[in-house]
Write a structure and sequence with these properties.
elongated, alpha/beta, 14% strand, 4-stranded parallel β-sheet, 346 residues, single chain, 6-stranded parallel β-sheet
Length: 346
């Protein structure tokens, strides 16, 4: 499935159709000749097909035909990292959903790097998984399209490219709910730690933030929008930038709980109380945030629903075309990290 030289960087695009076209024979003929499970033919046509396949770089052992015919009841899951509690929760939900349908989930981590995504996919497919669940889709990478070209069964989870079969939360609604909550408390100078632009989840939550502000007629100040990664340290750095502003924001919406925890640490280092000086809202509702010294207001994502829908889409494949993107509804969970702004805040 991957060529030797460029294979470490990308998926090979050579298909049975390509080999058939080059050899001047049918796709089914190529499939039969290259199927190692069948008796090897030494006919002139067979030799020519094998030579052309080798020259083009086609490798059959993990092809879509093999995946379709040789079910292993095993699903490959690719996540950025399991130290991210959100991804651990997604994988656990997928593993439980698989178990209920007598399947098994195998996870690979890639540190959110496109090159590593391809390596992980190759490795999982070589081990005979029936399909892939990817939580690593990026706006700046065409990896899902490469899988589609090869006919590999896959589904996106938590993030989407807008084209592939996907199971996600309603990120725009979640961003709206978080910001609307702060607006209802009386905040108007609301900042956002916006996450990386390559992730659809970040972009959706930012869109929800902007929609809520526009609906309320509140100021949308570009200085109040700070991009970050999804990590705690990145959240702290983003919050430090916001704390340099004058006047300070009275509230901050961080697009995931890790960045919210980082923001809380930066606020604490400045000696500012939460929520009296600054209110903070996170996203995802990981277990830790309800047990913080100041329990975090956040948006809860239904990981179990997302996992079940992802596996249904993976099983249905093209039959899911009438509903390619399943969207689960998030819920706002108010806690003690948010309150009305002080009278002197503005």
């Amino acid at each position: 499935m991957f060529q030797d030289a460029d294979a470490q960087e990308r998926l090979v695009r050579v298909t049975l159709h390509d080999v058939a076209a080059a050899a001047g024979v049918s796709k089914s003929t190529v499939s039969r000749i290259l199927d190692e499970r069948l008796p090897r033919s030494d006919s002139e046509t067979a030799r020519r097909v094998r030579e052309i396949a080798a020259r083009l770089g086609y490798v059959r052992d993990v092809s879509a035909a093999s995946l379709r015919r040789g079910k292993t009841n095993t699903i490959g899951v690719i996540v950025p990292r399991l130290t991210d509690t959100v991804m651990a929760m997604l994988y656990e939900a997928l593993a439980h959903a698989c178990a209920r349908s007598k399947r098994f989930a195998i996870v690979a981590t890639t540190d959110d790097q496109p090159k590593a995504d391809r390596t992980a996919a190759r490795t999982l497919l070589q081990r005979g998984v029936d399909g892939l669940v990817l939580s690593t889709a990026r706006e700046d990478d065409d990896f899902p399209s490469e899988l589609a070209d090869l006919g590999v069964p896959y589904v996106l989870a938590l993030r989407t490219d807008g084209k592939s079969l996907s199971s996600v939360g309603d990120d725009q609604l979640g961003g709206y709910l978080a910001t609307r909550h702060l607006l209802d408390l009386g905040h108007r100078r609301i900042a956002i730690i916006a996450g990386p632009t390559y992730a659809s989840s970040s972009r959706g939550r930012l869109e929800g933030y902007r929609r809520a502000l526009a609906e309320a007629g509140a100021i949308s100040d570009p200085a109040l929008i700070v991009e970050s990664t999804f990590g705690i340290d990145s959240g702290a750095v983003a919050m430090e930038r916001l704390l340099e502003l004058n006047p300070l924001p009275t509230a901050v919406f961080a697009v995931n709980d890790n960045t919210a925890i980082g923001a809380l640490s930066a606020i604490a280092r400045m000696g500012l109380p939460v929520p009296e000086a600054i209110s903070v809202v996170g996203y995802n509702d990981i277990p830790l945030v309800s047990r913080l010294p100041v329990p975090l207001t956040t948006v809860r994502v239904p990981f179990d629903q997302i996992a079940v829908a992802a596996l249904e889409l993976l099983s249905d494949g093209p039959a899911s075309d009438n509903c390619r993107i399943r969207v689960a509804t998030p819920t706002l969970i108010p806690r003690r990290s948010t309150a009305s702004p002080r009278a002197d805040a503005d």
